[in-house]
């Protein structure tokens, strides 16, 4: 209930910000970024799920390609709000006894809002953000090529991030960011390192 109320308040704040567009000299922008995610998935939990014991080897690849796209409203040179869709890629686990192979994939994507605080430094800028996202994680389990089970978990998660930007022109900016999404699927954190382009109207 608290999380839903917090998201509603953030959504109302984001929407009402447009009413002060002229008074605060607010400016909208669009952005797209791509990079690499790293999920802090506990390998021991997957080993236990599949009953990995002596003679069985297992591995876990927690890194994958990730991307995001969204729009923001910059109220002034210091404060902005963002709405975004994000795909955090997937973590892939496998275990084998030399004949049969057990596999698990955990893919996460969703949407959310960020509040961004920026420190302008001429053509450069530094930023910090805090966000609230609705993320869905699809978990698929297979054994020797046959599907065993699948499930989907949706959670509201908190996030934070740090970034830097460089103004190429009046309208285009290159951005680089580090972000952490907390308690994804109520189990683990996912980090995202990304770089992208922002268009300021």
UniProtKB/TrEMBL annotation:
Location of the Outer membrane protein beta-barrel domain: 7-201
Alphabetical list of Pfam families matching this protein: OMP_b-brl (PF13505)
Gene3D superfamilies, alphabetized: 2.40.160.20
Keyword Glycoprotein: no
Record-linked InterPro entries: Beta-barrel_OMP (IPR027385), OMP/PagP_B-barrel (IPR011250)
Keywords, ordered alphabetically: Signal
Protein name (record): Outer membrane protein beta-barrel domain-containing protein
């Amino acid at each position: 209930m608290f999380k839903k109320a917090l998201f509603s308040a953030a959504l109302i704040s984001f929407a009402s910000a447009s009413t002060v567009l002229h008074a605060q000299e607010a400016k909208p922008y669009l952005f797209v970024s791509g990079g690499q995610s790293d999920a802090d998935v506990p390998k021991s939990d997957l080993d236990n799920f599949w009953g990995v014991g002596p003679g069985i080897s297992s591995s876990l690849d927690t890194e994958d390609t990730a991307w995001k796209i969204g729009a923001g409203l910059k109220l002034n040179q210091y404060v902005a709000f963002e709405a975004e869709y994000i795909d955090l890629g997937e973590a892939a686990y496998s275990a084998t006894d030399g004949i049969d192979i057990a596999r698990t994939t955990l893919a996460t994507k969703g949407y959310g809002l960020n509040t961004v605080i920026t420190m302008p430094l001429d053509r450069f800028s530094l930023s910090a953000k805090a966000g609230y996202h609705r993320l869905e994680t699809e978990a698929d389990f297979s054994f020797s090529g046959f599907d065993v089970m699948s499930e989907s978990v949706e959670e509201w998660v908190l996030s934070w991030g740090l970034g830097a930007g460089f103004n190429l022109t009046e309208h285009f900016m290159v951005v680089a960011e580090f972000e952490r999404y907390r308690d994804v699927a109520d189990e683990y954190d996912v980090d995202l390192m990304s770089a992208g382009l922002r268009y300021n109207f």
